[in-house]
């Protein structure tokens, strides 16, 4: 019997557990049963994930006498849209999902965010269970209740805080991820060490390569530690009035780079986060906040993992530094017209900074762009 951990997210009436372990999908029926008013769930997923994991999930449910119907959306970020939302909600209504029923979101961040939002607005809110299938979704997007869709104005601009009732983070599902997707998700794992736990970052420096090769116990520990950190932050600041903003380490740079590359597979979100974290440490060092050698240490780990680390790792053209700063100014985290960065006093000591000097920012970006081939 392999280890199963439960990380509790203590949010009063909205509290829930993130269950972490192997073989959880096969046990989904037993794990979900306590939440069901009747033995029936509706599963939202996407076709690629459905081909890999839906049969196992439905078998795990029916082993406990739980009937399920499923709807597979088109894979990809384009589905996290008004059209994808309409398709999901209309299907849930066709399935006669009632107020006390449970919707299951089986997939990566797109399905989790979309399925969670559909559940939030269906009949003014039904409960939902997240079964995240990507590393990024297991350590970040499935925990904390941020749900939503993209619009032509930008990413995640329409949504709701709607906490899941349960999250099943099955480590075995990570086996089917392409290496690039796994490493992109690892960008969010490193982020937790960088923002708040230097000992975890040191552990990742030692164990990261084994974890990437498939070591299950290393994967389990990394997911658990990441979820513990996220659960703690979300419990203290559910709706991002303060500390939760630290989870956006690397994200101001990332969002600008994603916009500059057109939200396509030139740059995956987690890759942008990793590059953004390296840039945030560079800015921190230039401002004299952390040691001059710290950014090199961050980059050395990302490189050792074979990850995107610098702007030079993004293929194709990029706009100049001023245009990247202009894209940052469109970020939804801009407050009163001021750019907001998460910087660090050292590895594991991130804080919110609203007064990064504009010329320093431009010179860090210009140098990073100049280092491109
Ligand atoms: N992904 C950032 C947050 O959940 O707050």
From TrEMBL:
Task: Name the top EC class.
Answer: lyase
GO molecular function terms noted in the UniProt entry: 3-dehydroquinate synthase activity; metal ion binding; nucleotide binding
Q: Name one GO biological process term.
A: amino acid biosynthetic process
| A cellular component term, taken from the record's GO annotations | cytoplasm
Q: What is its main location?
A: cytoplasm
| Keywords of this entry | Amino-acid biosynthesis, Aromatic amino acid biosynthesis, Cobalt, Cytoplasm, Lyase, Metal-binding, NAD, Nucleotide-binding, Zinc
What protein name is recorded for this chain?
A: 3-dehydroquinate synthase
Q: What does this protein do?
A: Catalyzes the conversion of 3-deoxy-D-arabino-heptulosonate 7-phosphate (DAHP) to dehydroquinate (DHQ).
């Amino acid at each position: 019997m392999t280890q199963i951990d439960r990380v509790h997210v203590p949010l009063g009436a909205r509290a829930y557990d993130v269950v972490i372990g192997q073989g959880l999908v096969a046990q989904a029926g037993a794990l979900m049963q306590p939440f069901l008013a009747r033995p029936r769930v509706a599963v939202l997923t996407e076709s690629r994930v459905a081909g890999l994991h839906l049969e196992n999930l439905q078998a795990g449910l029916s082993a406990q006498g739980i009937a399920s119907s499923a709807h597979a959306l088109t894979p990809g970020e384009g589905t996290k849209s008004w059209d994808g939302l309409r398709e999901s909600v209309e299907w849930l209504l066709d399935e006669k999902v009632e107020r006390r029923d449970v919707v299951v979101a089986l997939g990566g961040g797109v399905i989790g965010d979309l399925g969670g939002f559909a559940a939030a607005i269906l009949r003014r809110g039904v409960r939902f269970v997240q079964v995240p299938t990507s590393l990024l979704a297991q350590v970040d997007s499935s925990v904390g209740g941020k749900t939503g869709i993209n619009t032509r104005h930008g990413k995640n601009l329409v949504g709701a805080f709607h906490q899941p009732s349960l999250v099943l983070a099955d480590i075995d599902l990570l086996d089917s991820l392409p290496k690039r997707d796994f490493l992109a998700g690892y960008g969010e794992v490193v982020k937790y060490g960088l923002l708040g736990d230097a000992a975890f970052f040191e552990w990742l420096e030692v164990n990261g390569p084994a974890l990437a090769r498939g070591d299950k116990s290393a994967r389990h520990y990394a997911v658990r530690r990441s979820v513990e950190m996220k659960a703690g932050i979300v419990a203290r600041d559910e709706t991002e009035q303060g500390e939760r903003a630290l989870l956006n380490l690397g994200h101001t740079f990332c969002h600008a780079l994603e916009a500059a590359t057109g939200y396509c597979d030139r740059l995956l979100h987690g890759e942008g986060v990793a590059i953004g974290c390296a840039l945030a440490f560079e800015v921190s060092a230039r401002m004299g906040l952390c040691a001059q050698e710290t950014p090199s240490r961050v980059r050395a780990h990302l490189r050792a993992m074979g990850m995107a680390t610098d702007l030079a790792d993004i293929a194709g053209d990029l706009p100049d530094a001023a245009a990247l700063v202009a894209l940052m100014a469109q970020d939804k985290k801009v407050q009163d017209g001021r750019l907001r960065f998460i910087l660090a006093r050292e590895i594991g000591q991130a804080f919110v900074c609203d007064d990064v000097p504009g010329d320093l920012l431009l010179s860090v970006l210009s140098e990073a762009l100049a280092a491109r081939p």
